[in-house]
Amino acid sequence: MTAPVSQAQSLHESPQGLDSAVLNPDPLLTALLKGDRRALAKVITLIESTRDDHQVRADALLNSLLPHTGGSLRLGVSGVPGVGKSTFIEALGLALIDEGHKVAVLAIDPSSTVNGGSILGDKTRMAGLSLKDEAYVRPSPASGTLGGVAEKTRETLLACEAAGYDVVIIETVGIGQSEMAVAHMTDFFVLLQLPNAGDDLQALKRGVMELADLVVVHKADLDPQAAALAQSQILAALRLTDARDTTQVLCLSALCPQQVAHFWGVVQRAVAHQRECGRFDQRRHAQNLTWMWDLIRAHLMTHFEKHPPVQAALLSTEQAVTQRSLAPGAAARGLLRLFTHLPVHSPP
Ligand code: GDP
Known about the structure:
By secondary structure, the protein is α/β, with parallel strands linked by helices. The chain is 59% helix and 11% strand. It has helices spanning 2-17, 19-23, 27-33, 37-48, 52-65, 85-98, 110-115, 127-130, 146-162, 178-183, 197-205, 224-240, 257-276, 279-306, 308-322, 328-341, and strands at residues 73-79, 103-108, 135-138, 167-173, 188-193, 214-217, 248-251. α4 (37-48) runs antiparallel to α9, α6 crosses α13 (257-276) and α11 (197-205) packs parallel to α12.
């Protein structure tokens, strides 16, 4: 039993315990911790890079900055294209800066992983906020699987926190798994909805509303009556589902500063309540564990699929399963045996 404990300790200690790193801190890290935006951009570029040497440097930097992370409020914002996310985030971000906050906006854009295009990654969005010294607006990493993009965003979030951003907004569009990814890396997840019952039911069907801590019926200025109706319909629908009965529904418009301020008040009160009852910490702890296990699963799968004996047997095994000459369970066990009984080679 002692070996695993000491291994765990050495893993645990490595972020801060490397004397040389303490005596000779990476200048990039020093600049990042002072809030230097160019240093932050460089660190994020390293995080997003697929080059092995960049990955090694990014990992070392991330380990060193870990003690300086965790201090922000992590806010998730999702909604279909056109619902007004960037208008809302810009209005909120500018109001928060006026209050003395430093705001980072990151994006997870599932479209960039599917076709290389981008719904969110356009730098011209939030032009006013981008110009502010107290804001850092970063488009989504441009490629990779959603899991990979989400992974980079989680690490970028840590870099932003270490650089002193105390509100980090992570934005995504209402497509596929990206909302789940954002809900699982933020303290408070907000779903923007159009005042249109059809859309509301869509989100409910997809199970996204259950992820939300707060549902916002947005662009309420266009038709206040329709917005109020949508609000009561969403509330009624939420009460019928398994959603937490604490989920609130607000009507607002990004064009109305008082309503944006009211939104922030609601978020602050809800987060304060979560902190008091211990849910805030529980959620972060669970998220850290999920993060670790997601990575382990992803890496194991990569090693498994690239393991030469598995690769050699895969096609014939799959054929045997589809032709029903081999039971799926037996096939899985056979492949796993190949993987675990033979020396595991690193994937190229
Ligand atoms: P996104 O695709 O979700 O980021 O949506 P945008 O923020 O780009 O907004 C889409 C359109 O809706 C733009 O023309 C905005 O000016 C407009 N818009 C955004 N928020 C509001 C709002 O609260 N009220 C009104 N009337 N229009 C809005």
